[in-house]
Design goal:
Layout: H1 2-29, H2 34-42, H3 84-94, H4 100-112, H5 126-161, H6 166-180, H7 183-194, H8 218-256, H9 259-266, H10 271-283, H11 285-289, H12 291-301, H13 304-309, H14 315-324, H15 328-356, H16 362-366
Helix pairs in contact: 1-15, 5-8, 5-12, 5-15, 6-8, 7-8, 8-10, 9-10, 12-15, 14-15
């Protein structure tokens, strides 16, 4: 097993290298860039994703227009009339004065040491920026995954036991409808109903906590926190709960129909002993082993629209804004961290299989 883990860890290196190389090459050919963004700001033509990004790109973002009027042969769109020395200063500031291969090698070396530099347009390090957004993403990912599993596993087991009954039929209809409704559309419905849209003002619409959160008691802080995340978590859990329910039901149905279950019943074991003493571990193998992946999927990928709708400033919104605004240090840092965590979680999922069922041996299978 240790040899298998070592091989998987070593394989992460070329995988990460390939991901970063392809992304870096794509960015080189993508139209626009941080230099063009600063130029557009100076020309009053900026169309960035958000007005929250300040001119924190350095002290060259103000006052360079004194050089305007000089003809420039700059390759940057909209740079005509700007002082070439100013354009050169922008290139140095963003690191574009060096050739692309040198910039890529430097990025890999820095990222290997988890040195992600500073944001182009925010006067803060990328790590600090990510740490600032983590509470939102952790809250959404963790509680959404726990809620969906807490509902889907008992419901899936009951549907498998009562397969074909009226309970199974009407709950299947609810599950299918839940799977079909997009999470962001359900989020809007929740806002209309419960957040002062047209009916009741029960839940808040912005942030993870209230403004007076620091003055609240410990119990008050807990209540306030769950009061704020109730609607976003409900909206996100809808689709995940449906998927997990059907997966649990199908897993249990496959196991219930096997010969060892019939043998256990013939020995006089009760239905509960058969179900939870024999079927449960085998049927839950794929469901439980998929928990790390489900959490990471919700943590990183599933929250952009929900964060936008409920005004939650998390990693999903940060990544989107950084891509639109060409804040490359934040873009590549998020990509690197997401990819690394994803590879580690895949390994953890495989190891979870062996922990739940020791009969599974990936090392033997590879041999």
């Amino acid at each position: 097993m240790f040899a298998y883990i070592a091989r998987r860890i070593l394989l992460m290196i070329p995988t990460l290298f390939g991901i970063m190389l392809i992304s870096f090459v794509i960015v080189q050919f993508a139209p626009g860039g941080p230099v063009e963004r600063v130029i557009a700001q100076l020309q009053g033509q900026d169309s960035g994703a958000t007005s929250r990004i300040s001119g924190g790109g350095g002290d060259v973002s103000g006052g360079p227009q004194a050089g305007m009027g000089a003809e420039s042969s700059s390759p940057y769109r909209g740079a005509q009339g700007l002082d070439p020395a100013f354009i050169k200063q922008l290139e140095v500031q963003f690191g574009f004065d060096k050739p692309a291969p040198e910039r890529f090698v430097k990025m890999l070396w820095d990222y290997a040491r988890f040195d992600f530099g500073k944001s182009y347009f925010r006067d803060v390090s990328v790590l600090e920026l990510i740490k600032e957004k983590l509470p939102v993403s952790i809250s959404l990912g963790l509680w959404m995954t726990l809620l969906s599993y807490a509902i889907s596993i008992p419901l899936g087991i009951k549907k498998a036991v009562r397969d074909g009954s009226s309970f199974d039929i009407w709950t299947s209809a609810v599950v299918i409808v839940g799977y079909a409704i997009p999470g962001f559309l359900f989020a809007i419905l929740l806002i209309v109903l419960f957040a002062g849209g047209s009916f009741w003002q029960i839940f808040p619409l912005r942030g993870l906590t209230s403004e007076n959160w620091a003055q609240l008691s410990l119990f008050g802080k807990i209540v306030d926190y769950f009061w704020h995340i109730a609607l976003p978590i409900t909206a996100m859990a809808l689709g995940a709960f449906a998927t997990s329910t059907l997966l649990t039901k199908n897993s249990f149905l496959d196991e219930i129909r096997k010969q060892y279950v019939l043998t256990a019943r013939m020995k006089g074991l009760s239905e509960s002993q058969v179900l939870y003493g024999h079927v449960f571990r085998n049927a839950m193998l794929i469901v439980i082993a998929g928990f790390p992946g489900a959490f990471i999927g919700a943590f990183f990928a599933g929250a952009l629209l929900i964060e936008t709708i409920f005004s939650l400033d998390g990693l999903g919104l940060l990544s989107f804004e950084s891509i639109v605004n060409r804040d490359y240090p934040v873009v590549f840092a998020n990509l690197y961290i997401f990819s690394l965590v994803g590879l580690v979680v895949n390994l953890v999922s495989d190891l979870t299989y062996t922990w739940i069922d020791p009969r599974i041996d990936f090392e033997t299978r590879e041999a």
